[in-house]
Amino acid sequence: MKIPTNMTMAYHDGDIDTNTSANPHLNDLIAVRYSRRQTLMGGLSAATAAVFGGMLLAGCDEDDPRRAVTVQAGASGATSAGKTVTLTGTVASGSATGVAWAQTGGPAVTLANANTATATFTAPSVAADTTLTFTFTGTSTDGIRSETSTSVTVSPARLDFTAVPKSLADVVAVPAGYSLTVLYRLGDPIASGVGAYANDGSDTNFARRAGDHHDGMSYFGLAATGSTPDANGNTRGLLVLNHENITQAYLHPNGATSIGGAIGAGGVRPESEALKEMECHGVSVIEISRSATAWSYVPASALNRRITPLTPMSFSGPVRGNALLRTRYSTDGTAGRGTINNCANGTMPWHTYLTNEENWAGYFRRQFGDVAARGGSTAKQNVSLARYGIRETANATTFNGNYGWASVVPADAANTLYARWNVTTTAATDATGDFRNEAFQYGWVVEIDPFDPASTPRKRTALGRMNHEGCEIGRAIAGVKPAFYMGDDAQNEYIYKFVSATPWSAADATATNRLAIGDKYLDAGTLYVAKLNADGSGQWLPLVFGQGPLTSANTTYPFADQADVLINARLAGDVLGATKMDRPEWTAVNPATGEMYCTLTNNSSRTAANVDASNPRAYTDPKTTGGQTTGNANGHVIRLRETGDTSEATAFTWDIYAFGAGSDLDATNINLSGLDATNDFSSPDGLWFGLPSNPTGNVTPVMWIETDDGAYTDVTNCMLLAAIPGRVGDGGTRAVTSTLGGTSNTVTTRIGKAPATTLRRFLVGPKECEITGIHSTPDGRSLFVNIQHPGENGGPTNITSSWPANQAGAVATPSRPRSSTIVITKNDGGIIGL
């Protein structure tokens, strides 16, 4: 409205201020708004982030130093489980007093350095492609926040390394992008005052040095100080490992002293040599630590310990105090001396270590006439000793056991360390006057508390007596009785499991009296033996006195009681009709599914006439260097799924995960898994799954396979392979024809899905070695592996391997080889294998 110039008015639109309230003027609001830099974009940042591609706009006054920050989070990305992911945010403009990353979606991960521009996390295990979302925030000097988002899509775990080629070289080869350190070697000192290892046969005092033939192994995390277990300890820990056997020739200056021909055939062994050899057997407990750059062992740690065939032991469980354990050393049958030929292992959730006595029977001398002294060939003790391979010698020969220790005449006449290896019955009136029962003291699972050097190891008799290869616990689930899976390593022996009488309680994982927890779970329960049927089903047959044929009326072997059944687990398996397997060795349990895997290393006595569904191959494997191996020369890996996926089940289904074979062998009847140059293998032995504390043990866990081969060593040294296996039943049935010695036989077996790229060679060892023993830190970023008996076919004047001296480069003069533990890390610090 236009006001005429000659008109006088008291009120008109827009010219009179009638608002006398204290509310602020718009100009005041603008001034305050900009003085605090609460820009329009600051309030709308979350809504506009997607529109502006992850970048937030600055305030309009570009010359004001107090303006809000703008941040960028980068483009979305993709990765696979176990990979290290780096989130990189930037401050595009402005001055930030702080930045931070936060997860806003997907499976929870732990962000390292979350309050910096560059945060990292480990991609979690997933079953299918899964998206994780993250927000990056910048805060200005006056507290204004700007945000932007990004996402990462994670796919299931996959093996991500280039397969190592087969090799006959005298070094350990690992994939590109990985490094190894030789950590702990035969003869390394583990106590103050013990000199460096000369490695010329002159060294002594192996009770305070590393033993020989490094084998099964476990890593236990240690707290930053003291001797307290830390289940998440990745830089300080205890490494516990078996010393299964010895390469005798390298331990003495000129080899072992001859005693009338072949070692052990007659005469007398020098006490000093025998003592050294005994001390080289057993177990090591050593403290190890990681600095910023490398792992090393702590030579003078108070936690270091050697357990040998001389170390005092106690017996626990149903056989403790039984008459068959009574000897001159332990007249009440509750104690013993030492453990020997320790092969595979077990790692208990209450932080103890199980070591397992395998080929112990060969160490004993049994003179001619002992069968008669014990009551004749049908007497129970003679039946038992023969079933375990302890037979008397012929009248005209003398066998002093492996390495002839029974022949030693000690300087101290009261010393019975050597006499105990002679199990011949003497004129003593009962077993407490000699060592006729000493062999019954071996063949057990032995539990060790690695955190207490003063503790006495316990032989757990409820788990039965056999050639124990390993003892692997299944998944520990609260309220469910845990199972412990075992193989009896000899041709045509059985697979066993022990189910504890006590359901698992998670609180026991942190108990301080660890051996008492072992008492709780390992001293009472039911031992079973496996029967595998042709239709893919199976039963766990209980080894319980009084059930079925396990009675005193049995004509094959009249069992007296439960202790008798456990001492003679093999005989009990025989009468129950268990399935004879091709050398059951290591067992491993998939931590995600609970399925049990068992390596069946090989079986030269398998014939075309006696193949069956679970051991379906008998064939000839020719060697390029001449000669051949027969039977199931390359072995296979079998797996079992418990009914209901519970460790308490008494029935299961089975199939064969993979068949060992050279890739050039017949694909129809021998190379049934379709192996190629990247993954063909022979004689699987060691077996282990990644830990559930990192992605190698979750959802689709990584399984590691180690070999102990003689059939394929003309083509390659022994090896370590990584696998991501499927599940029982993921393949199908296959008719397999075995042809050997003029006989042909066809059986139908159950075979897993062909491994293809989910099985890959990770490591090849030096000459004449076995790859055995494997474990990792909880984070999966350091992998410990044992290299056993390199150059085992040589001697002081014929050194056939110089490993590990030559690992860093060729040596000018041959060096005696040494069994050793190595540790493998990824150059980028990532998780091994993924």
TrEMBL record:
Spans annotated as Disordered: 612-635
Gene3D superfamilies: 2.60.40.3010
Domain of life: Bacteria
Compositionally biased spans, kind Low complexity: 624-635
Protein's UniProt name: Phosphatase
